[in-house]
Hints:
Blueprint: E1 2-6, E2 9-11, E3 17-24, E4 32-38, E5 45-50, E6 58-59, E7 67-72, E8 77-82, E9 91-100, E10 104-108, E11 112-116
Parallel strand pairs: 2-11
Antiparallel strand pairs: 1-3, 3-8, 4-5, 4-9, 5-6, 7-8, 9-10, 9-11
Amino acid sequence: VHLVESGGGLVQPGGSLTLSCLASGFNFENSEMSWYRQAPGEERELVASMPVAGSSISYGDSVKGRFTVSRDDAKSVLYLQMNYLKPEDTAVYYCNALVPRLAIVEYWGQGTPVTVSS
């Protein structure tokens, strides 16, 4: 299983970024996919969770209305569109997969750093 994030970088407050997570090695279409983030000295927190197609999407309170998660099952890619970025959005963003096997198995990507600063 591989989860490879990309798209992070430095952006000014109020700017936008789009993160991507390219997945391989498992049945992407049948897996719940999520974005988490971890700021320095803080615990990892949920940003957005996207279950399989047709299910409800959930967002962390701090990003509602600004971030949008989406998935392309044909390409096995998870996206996170981030708008109106704030300095407090600065963190390492991780892709997460909950893969149904005999039990649910959890996988993490290596993370991509996002810095929001002027």
